[in-house]
Write a structure and sequence with these properties.
The protein is of the alpha/beta class. The protein has a single domain, classed as Ribonuclease Z/Hydroxyacylglutathione hydrolase-like (Metallo-beta-lactamase, Chain A, 4-Layer Sandwich). It contains 8 helices and 13 strands. The strands form 2 sheets. Strands 7-8-9-10-11-12-13 form a 7-stranded mixed β-sheet, with helices on one face. Helix 6 links the parallel strand 5 (118-121) and strand 6. Helix 7 packs across helix 8 (285-299). It is globular, with a radius of gyration of 18 Å.
Amino acid sequence: MRLKLGRPDLADYSAYFDLGAAAQTERAGGSSLGVTFMGVSTLLIDDGQSAVLTDGFFTRPSLGKVLLGRIAPDEQVIDACLARCGAGHLQVEAVLPVHSHYDHGLDSAVVARRLGSALVGGGSTAQLGMGAGLPDAQIVIASEGASQEFGPWRITLIEADHCPPDRYPGEITSAVRPPVRTSAYRCGEAWSILLQHASGATALIQGSAGFVPSALSGQSAQVAYLGVGQLGLMETDYIESYWEETVVRVSAERVILIHWDDFFKPLPMPGEGSLRALPYAGDDLDVTMSVFARLAQRDGVRLSFPKLWERHNPWQGG
């Protein structure tokens, strides 16, 4: 089979970047929920005062370093990104890596330390926290399916899976102290994150395009953030099953796509350019969108892409 060169053009999907901005004045007054997308599966979900953060992945080492070198959190980049999204002005209750691969967990412990947040996940994520010197009190090992309260947020972690192939499968069994080879960041536990705010707003965050059949049965979420990395290389049956086991299972009314950007490139700040889709060699977003657009129309679900750095409220109509 001939290798497909280039990458999808996000301009082809401009109509899907339709999430209205949530006013920063509403955040300042603590009167509105909002979500800020910062590449891959990193989402800051806040109510103006309290927040939770998925992943917190900002360093984004180059492909060459990932394949041949050693990787470590870039604390200068992390600080700049946390300042840009306003996390320092919020009580960030928890940092939640969706699994422990480097493109989710590399920076998570440093971010938790900076913000004074709990680092929440499985045993593999705990090893990231221990390697970063987090106090035991900030490392929370979740029980699968059990809800935990963090301020106004109820968080439930449900067993999920990584989209095939998982290049670094298995558990992390000892503390990770960067710089290390990329392979040190084993997948560990993969999660479907169910989030409920005290206001009643609910969301599913599926950071990787993998699933465990029926794992989300009986759960509900108004909004689903779906990771789509590698999904476009899968067969149509798999893509359809992924939609069924996430969007349909939880009766989501809106789907927002994440983990579609080329994370071997630095995260651009405002005025420095925009995100690009992963190259066809690593994913095919065009395939994913052709299937998802059809399923969204069939099910009456709104399908969107988030804008980088722009705080949006997916629970609002319009």
